Structure to design on (382 residues):
């Protein structure tokens, strides 16, 4: 199953079998049950997570007690609270499994040693963060630019399979809707 | 003036004088007049910009013809349209000087060669993107979580000097306000 990470790394850097075995030794595999929390608000985020199978999400709980989803991670995606992970400060977020998931996790000290010992991984993570940052910038543009209805259609046309895969109340939360409003939009789309 | 970049790189990686001279040879310096555009919507974003002096901003023009600012860059900050820069696709953004500015610029091919020849710079850019991504994630959280008034106070308490420095209509645009609403908030804060 760790082949998934190997193939992902090899999209960006050349890595021999021996090098990958060494890289992999910094990670541990974990199975996460649906709705299990990997991180809870107030904790220090100890790990960076790579999804081998399943789906995780990051959310915070707002003043009204409502869960606001800010990010999803499916196969081949990384997820963590970067501020808490890098600075070892208390997190404002939760990270939770949306589906039963299998993940690779690496703690901060291990990630630092990995990068020191395997500089090729600097290049890999540089690409990962560069693309994640670019995606976050587009998300910010959409949050300003698109109406609620437009943002649903944009997300649907970009990630049709993902829209089918995740529970609709979570999609609504990610897009900043109520589940009722999303349900109306879906009816409209079908008709 | 290029010392500013040297010192910034040295916050993250060790770099000798000789290495820095080699790194610097990939960049060119440019002076930008106030309100001059470095990038216009529809162009391919050719360069990544590092601010030595002054202030740049990134914005797009929405359906109503209004400029929506999504990002600022002052001294020691990088700015580009990462999607357009990486994939050489047409940009949806403008990058413009808010103040008369002095910048270092590097085009995409040069940046790739720089990273190939100076792997230490992979580590530098990995940090740059990791932190930029973390900041973008917090911005997304604030866009969902804070009222307009709260977001003004949060920004003011985090960047008081910057709030004093930039034109208020641009700050309003960045926070998603009208200039009139920002003016009201400022009066309230003073009273």
């Amino acid at each position: 199953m760790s082949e998934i990470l190997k193939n992902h790394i090899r999209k960006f850097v050349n890595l021999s079998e021996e090098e990958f075995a060494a890289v992999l030794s910094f990670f541990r595999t974990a199975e996460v049950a649906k709705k299990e929390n990997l991180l809870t608000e107030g904790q220090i985020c100890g790990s960076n997570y790579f999804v081998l199978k399943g789906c995780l999400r990051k959310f915070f709980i707002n003043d009204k007690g409502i869960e606001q989803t800010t990010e999803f991670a499916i196969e081949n995606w990384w997820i963590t609270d970067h501020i808490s992970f890098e600075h070892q400060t208390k997190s404002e977020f939760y990270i939770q499994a949306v589906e039963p998931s299998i993940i690779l996790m690496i703690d901060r000290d291990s990630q630092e040693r990995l990068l020191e010992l395997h500089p090729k991984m600097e290049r890999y993570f540089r690409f990962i963060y560069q693309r994640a940052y670019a995606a976050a910038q587009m998300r910010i543009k959409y949050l300003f630019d698109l109406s609620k209805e437009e943002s649903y259609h944009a997300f649907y046309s970009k990630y049709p399979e993902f829209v089918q895969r995740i529970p609709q109340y979570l999609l609504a939360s990610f897009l900043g809707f109520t589940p009722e409003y999303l349900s109306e939009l879906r009816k409209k789309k079908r008709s």
Q: What stands out?
A: The longest helix of chain A spans residues 120-145. Chain A has a mean pLDDT of 93. The interface with chain B takes residues 60, 62-63, 68, 70-71, 81-83, 86, 92-93, 115, 119, 122-123, 125-126, 129-134, 136-141, 143-145, 176 of chain A (CB under 8 Å). The beta strands of chain A are 28-32, 37-39, 47-53, 56-61, 67-73, 78-79, 94-97, 101-107.
